[in-house]
Design brief:
Radius of gyration: 14 Å
CATH topology: Ribose 5-phosphate Isomerase B, Chain: A
Number of domains: 1
Order of helices and strands: EHEHEHEHEHH
Structural class: alpha/beta
Number of strands: 5
Shape: globular
Oligomer: single chain
Length: 146
């Protein structure tokens, strides 16, 4: 699977850990930056990762900042993105099963490395249920963008 990944300075170290983990699993990673721990603006990198998903260049996307809040808000401004801010594996599973989230956000200051890896693996390993009730609700969310 091809996965876009983007972060600000607060998520830089964890982004590099996640990218290496994903590549080791055989995924292709599109690194949308940032490329250093220097202070930067999270919307730039969250938007780049989100646009890669919406364009079809990547199948899924992951964004990070210190809390995950700023990057999740930014990614969700891109039409077609359903980005869930995650801090536990249960939510990672449910947002794929019920919401068919195509992006996830993590707070590097909220979750540690081991938990982040478990969340990512759970999220990527869970397929959308495809149930009619969930499709109907997703369609209503998509209609809000119009």
């Amino acid at each position: 699977m091809k996965i876009s990944i983007g972060c600000d300075h607060g998520g830089f170290a964890l982004k590099n850990i996640l990218a290496a983990h994903l590549e080791k699993q055989g995924h292709q990673v599109l690194d949308c930056g940032t490329y250093s721990p220097d202070s930067c603006d999270y919307p730039d990198f969250a938007a780049a990762a989100a646009k890669a998903v919406v364009s079809g260049q990547c199948e899924k996307g992951i964004v990070l900042c210190t809390t995950g809040i700023g990057v999740s808000i930014s990614a969700n401004k891109i039409r077609g993105v359903r980005c869930a801010l995650l801090s536990d594996p249960w939510s990672a599973k449910m947002t794929r099963l019920h919401n068919d989230a195509n992006m996830m956000a993590l707070g590097a200051g909220v979750v540690g490395e081991n938990l982040a890896l478990e969340i990512v693996d759970t999220w990527l390993g869970t397929e959308f249920s495809g149930e009619e009730r969930h499709r109907r609700r997703i369609d209503k969310v998509i209609a809000l963008e119009k």
